Amino acid sequence: MLVMAPVLPLDALRSAFGKRLRENQPLARYTSARIGGSADALVDIATSDELAKAAGTLWDLDLPFLVLGGGSNMLVSDAGVRKVVLFNQASAVHFEEENDQPTVWAESGVGLGVISRQAAAKGLGGLEWAAGIPGTIGGAVFGNAGAHGGDMSSVLEVATILHRNMGKKDWSAQDLAYEYRGSWLKKHAGDAVVLSAKFGLAKKPEAQIRVQMDTFLAYRRLTQPPGASMGSMFKNPPGDSAGRLIEAAGLKGKRIGNAQVSPLHANFFLNLGNSRAADVYALIQEARAAVLRDFGVDLELEIELVGEWPAE
After folding, report:
1. CATH architecture for residues 226-306
2. Mind telling me the catalytic residues?
3. pLDDT value at 278 more than 70
Protein backbone atom coordinates (compact mmCIF):
# COMPACT_ATOMS: atom_id res chain seq x y z
CA MET A 1 0.00 0.00 0.00
CA LEU A 2 1.42 3.38 -1.04
CA VAL A 3 1.20 6.50 1.12
CA MET A 4 -0.47 8.95 -1.25
CA ALA A 5 -0.10 12.75 -1.19
CA PRO A 6 -2.77 15.25 -2.28
CA VAL A 7 -2.75 16.76 -5.75
CA LEU A 8 -1.15 20.21 -5.77
CA PRO A 9 -3.19 23.33 -6.74
CA LEU A 10 -1.08 24.33 -9.71
CA ASP A 11 -3.09 27.49 -10.48
CA ALA A 12 -2.33 28.86 -7.01
CA LEU A 13 1.34 27.96 -7.39
CA ARG A 14 1.56 29.64 -10.81
CA SER A 15 0.09 32.78 -9.28
CA ALA A 16 2.51 32.70 -6.34
CA PHE A 17 5.77 31.88 -8.14
CA GLY A 18 5.33 32.88 -11.78
CA LYS A 19 8.24 31.94 -14.04
CA ARG A 20 10.20 30.41 -11.17
CA LEU A 21 7.71 27.54 -11.12
CA ARG A 22 8.54 24.54 -13.31
CA GLU A 23 6.01 21.76 -13.66
CA ASN A 24 6.49 18.01 -14.07
CA GLN A 25 10.25 18.12 -13.52
CA PRO A 26 12.22 14.83 -13.52
CA LEU A 27 14.16 14.75 -10.25
CA ALA A 28 16.79 12.17 -11.19
CA ARG A 29 18.94 14.93 -12.69
CA TYR A 30 18.93 16.78 -9.35
CA THR A 31 20.04 13.88 -7.13
CA SER A 32 23.42 12.29 -6.56
CA ALA A 33 21.96 8.82 -7.18
CA ARG A 34 20.45 9.91 -10.53
CA ILE A 35 17.26 8.07 -9.59
CA GLY A 36 13.63 9.08 -9.19
CA GLY A 37 10.40 10.20 -10.80
CA SER A 38 9.09 13.70 -11.43
CA ALA A 39 8.01 16.53 -9.14
CA ASP A 40 4.64 18.03 -9.97
CA ALA A 41 6.04 21.45 -9.09
CA LEU A 42 9.59 22.74 -8.67
CA VAL A 43 10.46 26.32 -7.70
CA ASP A 44 13.92 27.78 -8.34
CA ILE A 45 15.40 29.50 -5.28
CA ALA A 46 18.36 31.88 -5.73
CA THR A 47 18.74 33.48 -2.26
CA SER A 48 17.95 32.74 1.37
CA ASP A 49 15.37 35.55 1.28
CA GLU A 50 13.62 33.81 -1.62
CA LEU A 51 13.72 30.56 0.33
CA ALA A 52 12.13 32.20 3.37
CA LYS A 53 9.40 33.82 1.28
CA ALA A 54 8.67 30.60 -0.62
CA ALA A 55 8.43 28.56 2.59
CA GLY A 56 6.15 31.17 4.13
CA THR A 57 3.91 31.17 1.07
CA LEU A 58 3.61 27.38 1.08
CA TRP A 59 2.87 27.26 4.80
CA ASP A 60 0.16 29.89 4.26
CA LEU A 61 -1.28 27.71 1.48
CA ASP A 62 -0.95 24.67 3.75
CA LEU A 63 1.00 22.82 1.06
CA PRO A 64 3.75 20.27 1.72
CA PHE A 65 7.20 21.05 0.34
CA LEU A 66 10.72 19.69 0.15
CA VAL A 67 13.91 21.75 0.09
CA LEU A 68 16.35 20.16 -2.38
CA GLY A 69 19.99 21.17 -2.45
CA GLY A 70 22.74 18.80 -3.59
CA GLY A 71 20.36 15.86 -3.74
CA SER A 72 22.57 13.51 -1.72
CA ASN A 73 21.34 11.30 1.14
CA MET A 74 17.94 10.81 -0.46
CA LEU A 75 16.14 8.27 -2.59
CA VAL A 76 13.28 9.64 -4.72
CA SER A 77 10.57 7.12 -5.56
CA ASP A 78 9.81 6.12 -9.13
CA ALA A 79 6.32 7.60 -8.65
CA GLY A 80 7.85 11.01 -8.02
CA VAL A 81 6.94 13.73 -5.54
CA ARG A 82 3.58 15.38 -4.98
CA LYS A 83 5.13 18.01 -2.71
CA VAL A 84 6.42 21.35 -4.01
CA VAL A 85 10.19 21.05 -4.45
CA LEU A 86 12.19 24.18 -3.60
CA PHE A 87 15.45 23.85 -5.55
CA ASN A 88 17.81 25.76 -3.27
CA GLN A 89 20.68 27.46 -5.08
CA ALA A 90 21.24 30.24 -2.50
CA SER A 91 25.01 30.63 -2.72
CA ALA A 92 26.27 33.69 -0.82
CA VAL A 93 29.40 33.18 1.32
CA HIS A 94 31.18 35.63 3.62
CA PHE A 95 34.41 35.06 5.57
CA GLU A 96 35.43 37.04 8.66
CA GLU A 97 39.18 36.55 8.57
CA GLU A 98 40.56 39.41 10.65
CA ASN A 99 39.19 38.34 14.03
CA ASP A 100 41.15 36.17 16.44
CA GLN A 101 38.34 33.67 16.00
CA PRO A 102 37.58 33.68 12.25
CA THR A 103 34.22 32.51 10.90
CA VAL A 104 32.48 31.76 7.64
CA TRP A 105 28.81 32.49 6.97
CA ALA A 106 27.09 30.77 4.06
CA GLU A 107 23.59 30.48 2.67
CA SER A 108 22.05 27.03 2.85
CA GLY A 109 22.41 26.20 -0.86
CA VAL A 110 26.23 26.38 -0.75
CA GLY A 111 28.10 23.08 -1.00
CA LEU A 112 29.75 22.06 2.27
CA GLY A 113 32.84 20.90 0.39
CA VAL A 114 32.97 24.26 -1.42
CA ILE A 115 33.36 26.31 1.75
CA SER A 116 35.80 23.75 3.14
CA ARG A 117 38.07 24.32 0.14
CA GLN A 118 37.58 28.09 0.20
CA ALA A 119 38.52 28.16 3.88
CA ALA A 120 41.65 26.11 3.20
CA ALA A 121 42.76 28.58 0.52
CA LYS A 122 42.53 31.35 3.15
CA GLY A 123 44.52 29.42 5.76
CA LEU A 124 41.43 28.71 7.85
CA GLY A 125 40.95 25.24 9.30
CA GLY A 126 38.13 23.44 11.04
CA LEU A 127 36.29 22.06 8.02
CA GLU A 128 38.96 19.74 6.67
CA TRP A 129 36.75 16.71 7.40
CA ALA A 130 34.07 18.11 5.08
CA ALA A 131 36.18 18.38 1.92
CA GLY A 132 34.66 15.33 0.22
CA ILE A 133 31.07 15.62 1.43
CA PRO A 134 28.77 16.27 -1.56
CA GLY A 135 25.79 17.90 0.19
CA THR A 136 24.88 21.50 0.91
CA ILE A 137 25.03 23.56 4.09
CA GLY A 138 21.28 23.20 4.56
CA GLY A 139 21.38 19.43 4.34
CA ALA A 140 24.46 19.24 6.55
CA VAL A 141 22.84 21.35 9.28
CA PHE A 142 19.60 19.36 8.95
CA GLY A 143 21.26 15.96 9.36
CA ASN A 144 24.38 16.78 11.40
CA ALA A 145 26.65 15.68 8.57
CA GLY A 146 30.06 14.43 9.54
CA ALA A 147 33.14 12.45 8.59
CA HIS A 148 36.58 11.58 9.96
CA GLY A 149 35.64 12.49 13.54
CA GLY A 150 34.18 15.91 12.69
CA ASP A 151 30.57 16.99 12.29
CA MET A 152 28.25 19.98 12.27
CA SER A 153 27.81 19.98 16.03
CA SER A 154 31.54 20.63 16.51
CA VAL A 155 31.85 23.65 14.20
CA LEU A 156 28.44 25.31 13.99
CA GLU A 157 28.13 28.62 15.80
CA VAL A 158 24.58 29.46 14.73
CA ALA A 159 22.15 28.48 12.00
CA THR A 160 19.48 30.92 10.89
CA ILE A 161 16.26 28.93 10.87
CA LEU A 162 12.78 29.91 9.70
CA HIS A 163 10.13 28.10 11.75
CA ARG A 164 6.55 28.07 10.55
CA ASN A 165 5.24 29.26 13.95
CA MET A 166 8.21 30.89 15.70
CA GLY A 167 9.54 32.89 12.73
CA LYS A 168 13.20 33.48 11.90
CA LYS A 169 15.91 33.29 14.52
CA ASP A 170 19.41 31.94 15.13
CA TRP A 171 19.69 28.45 16.58
CA SER A 172 22.81 27.08 18.26
CA ALA A 173 23.98 23.48 18.00
CA GLN A 174 22.41 22.96 21.42
CA ASP A 175 19.08 24.37 20.18
CA LEU A 176 19.23 21.93 17.27
CA ALA A 177 19.55 19.00 19.70
CA TYR A 178 22.21 17.32 17.60
CA GLU A 179 22.83 13.60 17.79
CA TYR A 180 24.56 11.11 15.50
CA ARG A 181 23.27 12.02 11.99
CA GLY A 182 20.20 13.60 13.52
CA SER A 183 18.72 16.83 14.85
CA TRP A 184 15.52 18.52 16.00
CA LEU A 185 15.03 19.58 12.37
CA LYS A 186 15.18 16.02 11.11
CA LYS A 187 12.66 14.87 13.72
CA HIS A 188 10.31 17.75 12.81
CA ALA A 189 10.75 17.80 9.04
CA GLY A 190 8.42 20.29 7.39
CA ASP A 191 8.22 22.65 10.37
CA ALA A 192 11.36 24.69 9.63
CA VAL A 193 13.92 25.48 6.92
CA VAL A 194 17.62 26.29 7.17
CA LEU A 195 18.38 29.69 5.62
CA SER A 196 22.08 30.06 6.44
CA ALA A 197 24.75 29.06 8.94
CA LYS A 198 27.91 30.43 10.52
CA PHE A 199 30.87 28.22 11.43
CA GLY A 200 33.83 28.79 13.69
CA LEU A 201 37.24 28.36 12.08
CA ALA A 202 40.89 28.53 13.17
CA LYS A 203 43.94 30.08 11.56
CA LYS A 204 46.39 27.42 10.36
CA PRO A 205 49.13 27.17 7.74
CA GLU A 206 47.46 26.40 4.43
CA ALA A 207 49.95 23.60 3.73
CA GLN A 208 48.96 21.87 6.98
CA ILE A 209 45.28 22.13 6.09
CA ARG A 210 45.91 20.77 2.59
CA VAL A 211 47.82 17.76 3.92
CA GLN A 212 44.95 16.89 6.24
CA MET A 213 42.34 17.34 3.50
CA ASP A 214 44.35 15.28 1.02
CA THR A 215 44.67 12.50 3.60
CA PHE A 216 40.91 12.45 4.16
CA LEU A 217 40.16 12.57 0.44
CA ALA A 218 42.62 9.75 -0.29
CA TYR A 219 40.99 7.60 2.38
CA ARG A 220 37.58 8.40 0.95
CA ARG A 221 38.66 7.35 -2.55
CA LEU A 222 40.17 4.15 -1.15
CA THR A 223 37.14 3.10 0.90
CA GLN A 224 34.10 4.59 -0.83
CA PRO A 225 32.94 3.72 -4.34
CA PRO A 226 32.78 6.25 -7.18
CA GLY A 227 29.65 6.59 -9.25
CA ALA A 228 26.04 7.45 -8.58
CA SER A 229 24.91 6.69 -5.05
CA MET A 230 23.04 8.27 -2.15
CA GLY A 231 26.02 8.20 0.21
CA SER A 232 25.92 6.03 3.33
CA MET A 233 22.67 4.09 3.25
CA PHE A 234 22.33 3.17 6.94
CA LYS A 235 23.47 4.73 10.18
CA ASN A 236 26.21 2.81 11.93
CA PRO A 237 24.79 0.98 14.95
CA PRO A 238 26.55 1.62 18.28
CA GLY A 239 29.96 -0.03 18.34
CA ASP A 240 29.74 -1.46 14.83
CA SER A 241 29.42 -0.44 11.20
CA ALA A 242 26.50 -1.00 8.85
CA GLY A 243 28.85 -1.87 6.01
CA ARG A 244 30.53 -4.63 8.00
CA LEU A 245 27.19 -6.14 9.00
CA ILE A 246 25.80 -6.10 5.45
CA GLU A 247 29.01 -7.65 4.12
CA ALA A 248 28.97 -10.32 6.86
CA ALA A 249 25.36 -11.11 5.91
CA GLY A 250 26.64 -12.02 2.44
CA LEU A 251 25.18 -9.10 0.48
CA LYS A 252 28.30 -7.28 -0.69
CA GLY A 253 27.97 -6.98 -4.46
CA LYS A 254 24.30 -8.09 -4.41
CA ARG A 255 22.41 -6.75 -7.40
CA ILE A 256 18.73 -6.22 -8.18
CA GLY A 257 18.15 -4.78 -11.63
CA ASN A 258 20.72 -2.02 -12.07
CA ALA A 259 20.98 -1.32 -8.34
CA GLN A 260 23.90 -2.89 -6.50
CA VAL A 261 25.33 -3.11 -3.00
CA SER A 262 28.83 -1.79 -3.65
CA PRO A 263 31.56 -4.47 -3.92
CA LEU A 264 33.91 -1.93 -2.28
CA HIS A 265 31.81 -0.75 0.67
CA ALA A 266 28.56 -2.52 1.51
CA ASN A 267 26.89 0.56 3.05
CA PHE A 268 26.84 2.23 -0.38
CA PHE A 269 24.17 1.22 -2.89
CA LEU A 270 25.02 2.09 -6.49
CA ASN A 271 23.02 3.04 -9.56
CA LEU A 272 24.78 1.15 -12.32
CA GLY A 273 22.74 2.97 -14.96
CA ASN A 274 19.03 3.79 -15.21
CA SER A 275 18.29 1.98 -11.97
CA ARG A 276 14.77 2.10 -10.58
CA ALA A 277 14.18 3.40 -7.08
CA ALA A 278 12.13 0.26 -6.48
CA ASP A 279 15.23 -1.87 -7.02
CA VAL A 280 17.23 0.16 -4.50
CA TYR A 281 14.35 -0.10 -2.07
CA ALA A 282 14.27 -3.87 -2.52
CA LEU A 283 17.99 -4.01 -1.69
CA ILE A 284 17.35 -1.88 1.40
CA GLN A 285 14.69 -4.29 2.62
CA GLU A 286 16.85 -7.33 1.88
CA ALA A 287 19.85 -5.86 3.71
CA ARG A 288 17.79 -4.92 6.76
CA ALA A 289 16.16 -8.34 6.90
CA ALA A 290 19.46 -10.22 6.53
CA VAL A 291 21.26 -8.17 9.20
CA LEU A 292 18.32 -8.51 11.60
CA ARG A 293 18.15 -12.25 10.98
CA ASP A 294 21.88 -12.92 11.31
CA PHE A 295 22.89 -10.39 13.98
CA GLY A 296 19.73 -9.14 15.67
CA VAL A 297 20.49 -5.56 14.58
CA ASP A 298 17.72 -3.46 13.04
CA LEU A 299 19.53 -1.06 10.73
CA GLU A 300 18.20 2.50 10.61
CA LEU A 301 18.27 4.44 7.35
CA GLU A 302 20.59 7.42 7.14
CA ILE A 303 19.11 8.51 3.82
CA GLU A 304 15.65 10.01 3.43
CA LEU A 305 12.97 8.25 1.40
CA VAL A 306 11.25 10.95 -0.69
CA GLY A 307 7.95 10.48 -2.47
CA GLU A 308 5.48 7.60 -2.32
CA TRP A 309 6.62 4.36 -0.69
CA PRO A 310 4.97 1.28 0.79
CA ALA A 311 3.78 1.96 4.35
CA GLU A 312 5.88 0.09 6.88
Report:
1. Alpha-Beta Complex (3.90)
2. 181, 232, 302
3. yes
